[in-house]
Amino acid sequence: MTRIDRYIGNSVLWAFLIVAVVLLGLDFALTFIEQIKKVNDSYTIQSLLQVILYRLPGKLAEYIPIASLIGTLMGLGTLAATSELTVMRAAGMPIWRIGFAACQPILLASLLGMGISEFVSPIAEQKATLIEKFKDQESGTFSLTGGVWLKADNNFVYIDAADDTGKLYNLQIFSPEGQKLKYIRTASTAEHVQGTQWQLNNVTETRFNEDKIEKTNMEKANWDVSITPEHLFLATQEPDSLSLSQLKNYQTYLKQQKLDSAPYELEFWITALRPIASLALVLVALSSVFGPLRSSTMGSRIFSGVIIGLAFQNALNLFGRMSVAVNFPPVIGVSIPIIICLLAGIILIRRRG
């Protein structure tokens, strides 16, 4: 049986790889078409291509469940079309054994996706974000969208971008005094010195006095703030661009500060449960190949896989967002569509015998 298991696994694996490449290619093309309007003198075609390429590892990890579903439908569907699955069944090979062989390459791909989400995509996403932010810095403008606002001690701080070395880019520090604004500081970068001490570079300070407004330019200035470099970096990142360990770390920090950590919890469980979601969709695909799609064309299988995959992804987003909106544990919201797929797949496979 080992040779047959390997044969089934190879068929599913090659189909999975083809689907993954096609999905990434479509994503690349559509993103390029959508983002081409942003190209200008400071944000060139080369920069846009770099940004899209840096974000492909994260996209690959996201597409693994859907690619697993369509790949299994294609791989096993090809064997069904050539009556190879019929011969295997006639030889006494149970459906669960065929399913086990099909799940092995998908499980390996899912674990690879977890590794990408943990070690590759966060770094690549950070580089892509910095390239996008630098286009504003090179053109001499400040962007007040796409970054993050923080309340640090008694000040309100806007940070356009940050990297994992603790360096901050394009800061604006608003310091109020009662109901009035005392001063605004802008800095091109900030670097952590030690403890609560930071060094601001290329600083412009605007002070609002009773009778006049004073504007001062400084090459460097000190900034005393209690937030750590690590948490400042995590605060500037979107939840879907962080690794599992970073998501867990920032969740803990937000809970300690009695702040809302639900978006980060939601993204943590979506990423952590992605391998189980992939296996659940493989079970659905397996039951379909031995059921209504047994004698259908390859186009019908692909279409069915896309519809099921979209329905699953929409259900995942719906229940996940609903759990955040109604203050329900995100792990339950993410688990509901996965459990439904698992139960549906198991029930249908048992009926096929």
UniProtKB/TrEMBL annotation:
GO biological process, one term: transmembrane transport
GO cellular component, one term: ATP-binding cassette (ABC) transporter complex
InterPro entries xref list: LptG (IPR030923), LptG/LptF_permease (IPR005495)
Principal location class: membrane
Transmembrane portions of the chain: 12-33, 63-83, 95-116, 268-290, 302-319, 331-349
Subcellular location field: Cell membrane
Keywords: Cell membrane, Membrane, Transmembrane, Transmembrane helix
Pfam families to which the protein is assigned, alphabetical: LptF_LptG (PF03739)
Domain of life where this protein originates: Bacteria
Membrane topology: Multi-pass membrane protein
Subunit field text: Component of the lipopolysaccharide transport and assembly complex. The LptBFG transporter is composed of two ATP-binding proteins (LptB) and two transmembrane proteins (LptF and LptG).
Protein family per UniProt: Belongs to the LptF/LptG family.
Role description: Part of the ABC transporter complex LptBFG involved in the translocation of lipopolysaccharide (LPS) from the inner membrane to the outer membrane.
Protein name: LPS export ABC transporter permease LptG
Organism: Marinomonas foliarum
Organism placement in taxonomy: Bacteria, Pseudomonadati, Pseudomonadota, Gammaproteobacteria, Oceanospirillales
Gene: lptG
